[in-house]
Amino acid sequence: MKLSQLLLIGVASVTMFSCVSKKKLMDCNKNNVSLDSTNKVLQNDLTVCKDQHIADKARIQSLEDQMTYLKANNNQILGQMKDLSLISGSQAESIKKSLDNIGVKDQYISRLQAAMNRKDSLNIALMVNLKSAVGNLDDKDINIKVDKDVVYVDISDKMLFKSGSYDVTDAASEILGKVAKVLLSRPDIEFMVEGHTDNKPFKKGDLEDNWDLSVKRATSVARILQNKYNVPPSHITAAGRGEYLPIASNDTKEGQATNRRTRIIILPQLDQFFKILEKPEN
What is the pTM (predicted TM-score) of this model? Predict the structure, then answer.
């Protein structure tokens, strides 16, 4: 083989290797940017949670200090009133029992606050795990939040269904799989799948209106979670809300797009919550 041909082959090999390496490097850089963005979101959520926890602890301590002072002051006043014969011994004892009941209620409030703090911590951890599982997706397409002690996962209909359809797409199935993985890690929780639409009149095939469409979309998502990802059906509730619970104005296309969504609501476990409040047996 001629020297020129050998040189040509060598240059081509080096060029191909360089292109492949550059492509891998670009892919790695893109993945790093995505991971860094997700990490910043999670770090911000964690900082907010820590600040709230510190504020709650300070407020609880202040209330406990006030209660201790008031109880001590009340006992002192009772003693003074009894010594001055302003009240009888039986009256003083009755008042003391009332104050003791206040102390019992104070203990109940303390247990209630501890239970609420624990539940809030579990919900925040669940939210962070869900955000980490789905990755760095556009908040317009999927939004995960804690509101009034409940975890909400809102997924835009364009990520789940074709227009006017209740068949779940392949891409949507992958996203639901990530959500299902987190749900399965907490076998004690139950959740509701809600379908929502905009207010545009709808009728197609066996679907009479937006009520039908929202219910069919909710049950389609529920079946994917059950049949493909083995989420226990006893933990799932499927519901359709039609057009009647919008979160944006339907006067614009953007608002209509926001309202067309599927919402997964992590339901609070009230029985477990009240078990935390039960007074331990002696």
Answer: 0.57
